[in-house]
Amino acid sequence: SILEEARKRRATDIHIEKSIIRFRVDGKLGDYASIQKDRSSELVLRIKLISGMNVLEKRKSQDGHFVYGENKPVFVRVSVMAVIGDEENETEESVVMRLLDTARLPLGLMNLGFSDRQLIVMDSLLQNKNGLIVVCGATGSGKSTTAASMLLERIKQTGNSEKIISIEDPPEYIIPGVTQIKVDKELGITYESALEKIFRQDPDVIMVGEIRDKESASAAIGAAMTGHLVIATLHTDSAPSSILRLQDLGGSEKIINSV
């Protein structure tokens, strides 16, 4: 019922913490319901179970996912983190679920709210044969949707004459015409290992789903240096700060400026 109501309200995220359930709609969090503490614990256990997490572990952060619904499935990405409880020495868990409609294709760039001037700039960026395009913004700001829409626009511009491969953790959209690879560290599929294999697939364009650590930053910058066009997303509040963030993740200023 929580998932159904979130879909009706077009929520992007569901937050569950200290017996309070909140939805993020249009970028703003609002209370949806409050439940009893014991029911909240049961709900969190259920979410962890269907997300493939260790239900006995409450002290460490865990990530998982599941697919909800049959006719119109929704991909749900789940993050669970231990937080301080209301009572002394008590540990509770904060749950955030990101809702991604697996049946919904990314919107076209024309429908994302960009101005005509911005669209001209983005079109010129997509004309490049190589380099690194970083889509920046806060959580829930539309980075993944924008990046996926850029890939669709590139496919349209080139008449689907290019090999486009994405490395994502996990894929947030199913994009027609794009070969998508899911990062799975348990299976040894990391950003770096996937990138090594990708080059043997003769790609023209590579997307790195999210630059979040030194490994993914190195993968994105390294791919751009090999003469490919790379599109990636990054959590920063502005374009200029993305340079500082990439440097913080181990990127050389000289190399970053060159791509």
Tell me what the structure shows.
The protein is α/β, with parallel strands linked by helices and 259 residues long. 32% of the residues lie in helices and 30% in strands. It has eight helices and eleven strands. The strands form two sheets. Strands 3-2-1-6-5-4 form a six-stranded antiparallel sheet. Strands 7-11-10-8-9 form a five-stranded parallel sheet, with helices on both faces. The mean pLDDT is 87.
Provide a short characterization of the protein structure:
The protein is α/β, with parallel strands linked by helices and 259 residues long.
**In which order are the strands of the major sheet placed?**
3-2-1-6-5-4
As a percent range, the share of helical residues equals 25-40%
Largest sheet: 6 strands, antiparallel
Low-confidence stretches: none
Distance between the termini: 47 Å
* Mean pLDDT over the residues: 87
General form: globular
Strand portion, in percent? 25-35%
Per DSSP, the total helix count is 8
Order of helices and strands: HEEEHEEEHEHEEHEHEHH
Cα-based radius of gyration, to the nearest Å: 20 Å
Q: How many beta strands in the DSSP annotation?
A: 11
Structural class: alpha/beta
Helix and strand topology:
Layout: H1 2-8, E1 13-17, E2 20-25, E3 28-34, H2 37-50, E4 62-68, E5 74-84, E6 91-101, H3 116-126, E7 131-137, H4 143-158, E8 164-168, E9 179-182, H5 191-198, E10 205-211, H6 214-225, E11 229-235, H7 239-248, H8 253-258
Parallel strand pairs: 7-11, 8-9, 8-10, 10-11
Antiparallel strand pairs: 1-2, 1-6, 2-3, 4-5, 5-6
